[in-house]
Amino acid sequence: EAITIQELANRMAERAVDIIKFLMKQGEMHTINDVIDADTAQLVAEEMGHKVKRVSESDVVEGLSGDTDAPEQLKARPPVVTIMGHVDHGKTSLLDALRKTNVVSGEAGGITQHIGAYQVETPNGIVTFIDTPGHEAFTSMRARGAKATDIVVLVVAADDGVMPQTVEAINHARAADVPIIVAINKIDKPAANPVRVRNELLKYEIVVESMGGDTLEVEVSALKGTNLDKLLDVILLQSEVLDLKANPDREAGGMVVEAQLDKGRGPVATVLVQRGTLKLGDIFVAGSAWGRVRALVNDKGVQVKEASPSTPVEVLGLNSAPEAGDQFDVVPNEARAREVTEYRERKRRETRGAASARSSLEQMMSAIKEGATEFPILVKADVQGSAEAIVQALEKIGNAEIKARVIHYAVGGINESDIGLAEASKAVVLGFNVRASSQARDAAERAGIEIRYYNIIYDLVDDIKQAMAGKLAPEL
Ligand code: GDP
């Protein structure tokens, strides 16, 4: 934990200059906005005749975004949607086409800007789209603890059917516990075969409505603009079922969707407000950056005074650029902002420095001891037959308390996307007769994900059994 000299002075009701003088005597030169560590702060406080009550680390950061809202404070908010699916199935085309359906009359500006997310207004309600298709963005945000998406629209090209990245997308959505709406795209094509798509989806336990299931579906053509209004209606229907709510009358918090250093405007971040209302002049932290809201620009390029829940908005006034997926929170004052960012910066350094894997079998064993009930695993194998045999064997392991859960399996080498999913789901990655790409290895190293390689199914299954039983042979 760390604290600014100003904040320490405030808490002790002393003058900051006296603290600075005291520290100077100790040979430390500081200014009023400097952050000092907890031990130093304690020393200062005691020397100045104060009783010290150390608060826990979490006091610094938690409580910023706690769910402390009473039910009657909650109001309906628009759904936040991510579009996923196989490459070339039309994700980008669909995002572009949906953006164009936005015919909001009387709005100044009116030309949509790419800010990382946008809203579509329909007669039945507003929908927010995350403007980065695919599961990389989705997963990297989730890996950082952000729940950015309420609904996944799974795009499947009617002329191509379910493909490997379709399956990945399904598993990403499932792992995040986000409902899927199926958009069967390219129905304008002569080769379109939506029935085949529906049948193929069955294999992944997605049963669409027209087949008696409860997954909502729409046939669309992003190219011709067919049924886009229907897709929007279905999204809003799903959203009603989810009963999405937030309290608009509190200090704002949410997530960074995109950030960059703009030549003219300095650090700019697009944030998705998830609770509260963000206003001009608010002081906020975003990851390890902080600032005071100097201007808010919406997805139509229009300056606005405030942004309510589920609204994406560009924020100007940061001291540096945060990262996509970073949490942002409005705080009461600058001192607090410095305190929080300093704390986060330190945390970040610590986790980077920590050599211990965050999702290793060892880690998993201790999680089990602490009461975890599921053991997430990602399997990549050289052939479909082996992959299926492994999954079957793994799913049989477990007892009433703990079960192995295969969050994703596929044929092929271990790639970066696998690591992203493993990181987001805290899973271990098992490779059977396959290796990881060098990018995947680097990503795993950075994220602290353990990759284990096997060439005998028995060994693989046995290791997992041992880990679940709390004993594990050292890694070879
Ligand atoms: P992404 O990789 O999933 O983002 O796919 P794109 O949006 O880039 O689309 C891939 C290709 O499919 C492009 O050439 C699009 O023009 C085409 N495409 C997308 N949607 C449709 C559609 O509804 N009908 C037809 N005929 N082509 C489409």
UniProtKB/TrEMBL annotation:
Belongs to the TRAFAC class translation factor GTPase superfamily. Classic translation factor GTPase family. IF-2 subfamily. Residues 79-227 are annotated as: G-domain. Signal peptide: none annotated. It comes from the Bacteria. Coiled coil: none annotated. Transmembrane segments: none annotated. Keywords: Cytoplasm, GTP-binding, Initiation factor, Nucleotide-binding, Protein biosynthesis. It is found in: Cytoplasm. Residues 76-245 form the Tr-type G domain. One of the essential components for the initiation of protein synthesis. Protects formylmethionyl-tRNA from spontaneous hydrolysis and promotes its binding to the 30S ribosomal subunits. Also involved in the hydrolysis of GTP during the formation of the 70S ribosomal complex. The keyword Nucleotide-binding applies. The chain holds residues 298 to 773 of 873 of the full protein. GO terms for cellular component: cytosol. The keyword Manganese does not apply. One of its GO terms (molecular function) is translation initiation factor activity. This is Translation initiation factor IF-2. GTP binds at residues 85-92, 131-135, 185-188.
